[in-house]
């Protein structure tokens, strides 16, 4: 019986020692000085320096104030009380500045994402025109360059006669061939056709492809103009030659072969026999 009573007393003692300190700690959490500290560190106001000072005949009588904010307080406490407003949640506080900077960074991130999405979409669109597999579907090719570059594909790769060279007649063809002009024109034709083939078969940006189309077209026009010029010039030269051969009395016969000096004299005497 005594043992049971001792156990009950021990249990009550332990319960009292646990409950009483708990009540004291709750009371300290509601201390006005701690509440004032919380207000200073949030957003309400910079001040309310508890505990407050008390004076009697000009002498500080509040020991708590003297040890926290007064003459006996640590220097760091006095500097804190007399220093600048360092509330992190004030309008210009450090925490609010962080929030504003975070919001600004979020807006910048949205702009960067929108720009990157635009670049990606543009890259996908450009990729559709980059490959040579889609060149036939390009609107500018269908509207202009297909029609303008069609004569290049219709012109023979290696023309063999005056018809394929688009010349006037066989005599013009033989004249240009004998002077080596056709050989040079054939080299220029090979370069034009090679450039056209590259522009249609290679993978390249859309803008560069159309620049290559334009360069090929300009070169083809110069080629056609030069071919027409040689054609007209050779035709004119042959016409002059025929006129001279038909009107000059000293024109040589078609099958003329040089003779000896005696034969030349006899021919001259025979020609002027009845004139003098």
Number of helices: 11
The helical percent reads 55-70%
Overall morphology: rod-shaped
Percentage of β-strand residues: under 5%
Low-confidence stretches: none
Mean pLDDT value: 80
Could you say which structural class the secondary elements and strand pairing correspond to?
mainly alpha
User: How many domains make up the 3D coordinates?
Assistant: 3
Order of helices and strands: HHEEHHHHHHHHH
Please describe what this structure looks like.
Helix content is about 70%, strand content about 0%. The chain has about 280 residues and is mainly alpha-helical. The protein folds into three domains: about 10-80, no CATH class; about 95-130; about 135-245. The chain has a two-stranded antiparallel ribbon with strand order 1-2.
In terms of topology, how is this protein built?
Layout: H1 2-29, H2 32-41, E1 55-56, E2 59-60, H3 63-68, H4 75-82, H5 94-130, H6 139-148, H7 150-154, H8 170-178, H9 181-201, H10 206-247, H11 261-271
Antiparallel strand pairs: 1-2
Quick summary of this structure?
With 276 residues, this protein is mostly helical. It has helices at 2-29, 32-41, 63-68, 75-82, 94-130, 139-148, 150-154, 170-178, 181-201, 206-247, 261-271, and strands at residues 55-56, 59-60. Helix 8 (170-178) packs across helix 10 and helix 9 (181-201) runs antiparallel to helix 10 (206-247).
């Amino acid at each position: 019986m005594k043992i049971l009573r001792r156990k009950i007393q021990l249990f009550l003692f332990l319960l009292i020692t646990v409950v009483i300190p708990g009540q004291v700690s709750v009371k300290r959490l509601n201390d006005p000085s701690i509440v004032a500290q919380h207000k200073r560190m949030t957003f309400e106001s910079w001040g309310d320096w508890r505990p407050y000072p008390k004076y009697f005949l000009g002498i500080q009588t509040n020991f708590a104030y003297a040890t926290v904010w007064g003459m006996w307080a640590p220097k760091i406490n006095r500097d804190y009380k007399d220093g600048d407003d360092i509330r992190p949640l004030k309008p210009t506080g450090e925490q609010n500045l962080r929030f504003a900077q975070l919001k600004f960074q979020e807006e910048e991130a949205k702009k960067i994402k929108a720009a990157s999405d635009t670049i990606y979409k543009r890259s996908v669109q450009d990729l559709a025109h980059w490959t040579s597999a889609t060149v036939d579907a390009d609107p500018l090719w269908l509207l202009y360059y297909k029609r303008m570059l069609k004569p290049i594909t219709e012109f023979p790769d290696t023309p063999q006669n005056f018809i394929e060279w688009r010349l006037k007649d066989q005599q013009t063809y033989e004249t240009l061939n004998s002077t080596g002009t056709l050989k040079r024109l054939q080299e220029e034709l090979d370069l034009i056709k090679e450039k056209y083939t590259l522009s249609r078969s290679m993978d390249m940006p859309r803008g560069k492809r159309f620049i290559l189309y334009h360069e090929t077209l300009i070169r083809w026009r110069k080629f056609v103009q030069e071919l027409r010029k040689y054609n007209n010039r050779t035709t004119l030269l042959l016409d002059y030659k025929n006129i001279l051969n038909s009107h000059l009395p000293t024109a040589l016969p078609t099958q003329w072969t040089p003779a000896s000096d005696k034969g030349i004299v006899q021919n001259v005497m025979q020609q002027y026999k009845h004139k003098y």
